[in-house]
């Protein structure tokens, strides 16, 4: 099954990702999208899955963070090829946005 990219921040937060927005003293906005994942299907330890974006505005930073998140998800779970990445080479498939 092909991986559907999140269209916007609302889609990511609906899937359980948390948006963290910071504005630095230099005016640069940093957006972090993160979610705690349970770990590989074979019982591996969990991890916090994060993507970052920076920009002069929150909208720019969100766009970058969302693009980074979609790329990281595609790398982890398989892009639009219909393939799913495997956990630690043992043929156990990841569950999207869970493991």
Q: Overview of this structure, please?
A:
- The chain is elongated, with a radius of gyration of 15 Å.
- The chain is an alpha+beta fold and 99 residues long.
- The strands form two sheets. A three-stranded antiparallel beta sheet has the order 1-2-3. The protein has a two-stranded antiparallel sheet with strand order 4-5.
- The protein has two helices and five strands, in the order αβββαββ.
Summarize the SSE layout with pairings.
Layout: H1 9-14, E1 18-23, E2 29-37, E3 47-55, H2 58-77, E4 86-87, E5 92-93
Antiparallel strand pairs: 1-2, 2-3, 4-5
Largest sheet: 3 strands, antiparallel
| Percent helix | 25-40%
Structural class: alpha+beta
> In what order do the strands lie side by side in the largest sheet?
1-2-3
Q: Tally the helices.
A: 2
How big is the Rg?
Answer: 15 Å
How much strand content do the residues show?
25-35%
Low-confidence stretches: none
Instruction: Give the averaged pLDDT, no decimals.
Output: 82
* N/C terminus separation: 16 Å
The ordered H/E elements are: HEEEHEE
Taken from the alpha-carbon principal axes, the silhouette is elongated
Query: What is the oligomeric state here?
Result: single chain
E-strand count: 5
């Amino acid at each position: 099954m092909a991986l559907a990219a999140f269209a916007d921040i609302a889609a990511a937060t609906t899937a359980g990702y948390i948006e963290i927005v910071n504005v630095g003293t230099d005016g640069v906005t940093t957006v972090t999208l993160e979610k705690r994942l349970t770990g590989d299907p074979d019982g591996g330890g969990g991890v916090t899955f994060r993507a970052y974006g920076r920009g002069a505005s929150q909208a720019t930073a969100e766009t970058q963070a969302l693009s980074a998140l979609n790329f990281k998800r595609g790398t982890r779970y398989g892009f639009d090829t219909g393939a799913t990445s495997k956990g630690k080479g043992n043929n156990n498939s990841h569950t999207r946005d869970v493991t």
